[in-house]
Design a protein that fits this description.
By secondary structure, the chain is an all-alpha fold. The chain has a domain at 20-74. The protein contains four helices and no strands. The longest helix is centred in the C-terminal third of the chain and has 14 residues, at 61-74. The two termini are 34 Å apart. InterPro entries: Transposase_InsH_N. It comes from Butyricicoccus faecihominis. Residues 19-79 form the Transposase InsH N-terminal domain. This is Transposase InsH N-terminal domain-containing protein.
């Protein structure tokens, strides 16, 4: 019987580099959306909601917007 929880010691130090440019097809829907929408406009909309010199660094508002957009497009109900 093979123990599934045994760690593979030999492969532990291997490194793999993955390029998203090669992984995501050029005609993918999200690439088309990214090319069609100027997401920098989001910064203007939320500028007065963010403090520049107080507290911890926030999550980039464009990232938050894109997360919600992807959730809507793909019908993902949870952020988990």
């Amino acid at each position: 019987m093979i123990n599934v929880l045994t760690k593979d010691i030999e492969n532990r130090n291997q490194v793999e580099f993955v390029s998203l440019e090669q992984t995501v097809p050029q005609d993918h829907l999200l690439r088309q959306i990214d090319a069609a929408i100027n997401f920098n406009k989001v910064y203007e909309f939320v500028e007065d909601l963010y403090c520049k010199d107080n507290g911890r660094p926030s999550i980039d508002p464009v990232v938050l917007f894109k997360i919600v957009l992807i959730q809507y497009i793909y019908g993902i109900r949870s952020l988990r």
